[in-house]
């Protein structure tokens, strides 16, 4: 992972050093280095990229679990400053688990809204357009609640990333394996933070009829470097496409003489089908990550207990 790529990580004020590790004997070490190389920071919010990131991230945590189960690793971590690295990892795991759980709940609620909208819009095919407005109103109410939770979780992730833990430089002169373990912990946390931020921003639904949610739109410019401005123009994705389709339907419904066009109905349904498929993929990735994060936390708790 090069310096330019790392510098684009959300909420990261200092570039993370590229992974340049000493030789190690544990079989998981090489795989971890390879996964770090493939885990790119996220500066866009398309579901496929985020889903792929979650899959690779889960594999990274599985490799870390194997690495941290070895007696040599545990001894090195616990002996450094009375287990300070382990305590830091535990502290960060709480925030990451909370963000992961919150994102799962939001996806589940979003799926329910999508299914409700699909049912309502299909009824317009039979000439019943009265239910569309009430379903859209319920979606807008959900959007406002989701925006608050998303902003809260983004704030917590930002705070965690800004926390000044024991720096890698303090480990100079220490055992090379210990330096490697510390880097694995720090970089895995930073990349997890990045992917979770991208997922939450993927779900940040702009208000109907507006250019964007004021709170979320204030956060987005702070997440990415100026070099990504052109790319970020297209970051609203399928969730924003849904808003456009719904606004079109509502406009037709409220406009006395205009009936809802079949092309608008079919267009809205296509967007909803795409979003539903995205939710399926993201939910599977989040479920895997939640199990990985929980297992990771239990391992460190057990490490301290013994």
Describe this structure in words.
The chain has 306 residues and is mostly helical. It has one domain. It is 73% helix and 0% strand. The protein is built from eleven helices and no strands. Helix 10 packs antiparallel against helix 11 (262-305). The longest helix is centred in the C-terminal third of the chain and has 44 residues, at 262-305. The two termini are 35 Å apart. The model is unreliable at 1-23 and 210-235 (pLDDT under 50). This is DUF241 domain protein. It comes from Stylosanthes scabra. InterPro entries: BPS1_pln.
Which terms summarize this structure?
single chain, 306 residues, disordered N terminus, 11 helices, mainly alpha, elongated
The largest β sheet comes out as: none
Strand content: under 5%
Q: Report how far the terminal alpha carbons are from each other.
A: 35 Å
Find the structural class using helix and strand composition.
Answer: mainly alpha
Number of helices: 11
Rg over CA atoms: 22 Å
How much is the average pLDDT?
76
Instruction: Give the tally of β-strands.
Output: 0
| Helix proportion | over 70%
What's the order of the H and E elements?
HHHHHHHHHHH
Low-confidence stretches: 1-23, 210-235
Q: Which descriptor suits the 3D outline? A: elongated
Protein name: DUF241 domain protein
InterPro entries: BPS1_pln
SSE map:
Elements: H1 3-6, H2 27-38, H3 47-68, H4 71-79, H5 84-124, H6 130-162, H7 176-202, H8 214-223, H9 229-232, H10 237-254, H11 262-305
Helix pairs in contact: 2-3, 3-7, 3-11, 5-6, 5-7, 5-11, 6-7, 6-10, 10-11
